[in-house]
Amino acid sequence: MTTKSEPRPTRWAAVAALSVAVASGCTVAGNAASGDGATTVVVGYQSKTINTVTAGTLLRSLGYFEKRLAELGKSEGRTYRVVWQDYETGASITAQMLAEKIDIGSMGDYPLLINGTRAQAQGADARTEFVSVTGYNLRGSLNGVVVAGDSRARTLADLKGKSVSASVGSAGHGTLVQALGKYGIDPGKGVKIENQTPSVGVSALQSGGVAGLAQFVAWPGLLVQKDGARLLYDGGDLDVPTFHGVVVPHRVAEERPKVLAAFLRAQIDATGYLHREPLKASESVAAVTGLPVETIYLYNGRGGVATFDTTMKPRLSAALAHDVPFLKSIGVLRDSIDLKSFVNDSYLRKVYGSGYDGAVASTANPAAITGTDQVCGTKVDDPARAGEVWVDGESTIRPVASPVCLLRTVQAGGRRTRAVYIPDAVTGTRWFADRMSWVEDPGAAKDDRFKPFATAEGARKYVTAHSGAKDVPYAEAVKRS
Known about the structure:
It comes from Actinomadura meridiana. Residues 138-281 form the SsuA/THI5-like domain. Pfam families: NMT1 (PF09084). Residues 1-29 form the signal peptide. This protein is of the alpha+beta class. It folds into three domains: 39-135 and 243-361, 3-Layer(aba) Sandwich (D-Maltodextrin-Binding Protein, domain 2); 143-238, 3-Layer(aba) Sandwich (D-Maltodextrin-Binding Protein, domain 2), CATH 3.40.190; 372-480, no CATH class. 37% of the residues lie in helices and 20% in strands. The chain has 18 helices and 20 strands. The protein has helices spanning 57-62, 64-76, 90-98, 109-121, 171-182, 198-207, 219-227, 250-255, 257-276, 278-289, 293-300, 314-329, 339-342, 346-352, 356-361, 403-413, 456-465, 474-480; strands at 39-45, 80-86, 104-108, 128-137, 143-147, 163-166, 192-195, 212-216, 230-234, 242-249, 307-308, 372-373, 378-379, 387-391, 398-400, 417-423, 430-432, 437-440, 450-453, 470-472. A six-stranded mixed beta sheet has the order 2-1-3-10-4-11, with helices on both faces. The protein has a five-stranded mixed beta sheet with strand order 7-6-8-5-9, with helices on both faces. The radius of gyration is 23 Å and the shape is globular. The two termini are 15 Å apart.
């Protein structure tokens, strides 16, 4: 039996180009048609930003938007064509949108604010609107800081005087700066921040050029799974929501409301598919992006770090207001933004139907881990403790009721585990169980004495607060479970 999930080889080289060229002016925003009479709708997305898959990679592979537009076109006597354009950053999508070359785009919370601010600065006719959410985490755990597996750093304070890679203006950068402040470290003096794209930052971390890497989903999970890096800081410790969403030019929503409605309905369709078939959805995204399916499933699977829900929750809108001062402080936002005109859920509310307010009020992950724990013989129904064991060669992933049940399932499995997932005992952040810091607490109940923590600092805090508790290697916890 092998207790440690061994990362499967994967190429992090560039995948085949996904976008299709489109002639300038042939977009809904430009209110024009192509040579064959079809009206082109251009969607800008980021294939590797897996929090946006329900408005990007997965939606494209399912063909739901094309299907909705075909139905619309039939009723209008018109033909629609969708052009998908893949970008590395939200900034590129914003630039193309302001040039009237993209009709619908998806990006993270910081890029959304930059998009809205720059559009409003160009005048009322150019303004954009944030119309739906793709994926979110209410505590901010989609962002994190990782270090090399052999790093001596155990907290962010241990990075003082060292260099850390981050993409300035990104959510990962924001997490780093705000977290350093909580440790009393001036990010401009105490830590040198290297402004690098994620891929450049990965190379720098691997070569020892930087001591840490602060990035957004899926980079922290990817590095931990693929390269044996270690999560040093969980962005969830900030307890500030982070999310991704859909943005459109106001003129598109005003001039082609039925096109926007078709997109939102298709996004709702794709979200429902992800909830019903999280593994198949993850495999679909992996096939297109080249990302390991195990990493994608960490975030997008049942009980994943990301919750996929299109509705515009008040806590997410409030998070935008919270983020504005920070982005201004680092010079990313130079102009003010009118959030009341930017955040607009009226389009989504109209297509969603009568259940919208109920969905807005709920923060439970619709893709919950359910079923029966075969080893412990108990029902899996507590999202704060439930996990999963993915045994190599099995087409389904086994649900487990608790951390101890996960350890017992691995011990009884008899085969290599492809991936193991469990939430942090205190914060609830789902992580790779075999990459977590485990603690044995003899004072806890027998079936609860082994506890997982996403970071070494989390484990240290627990040990300090509980007499008799001690660190224990994952493999030992498996054997003694």
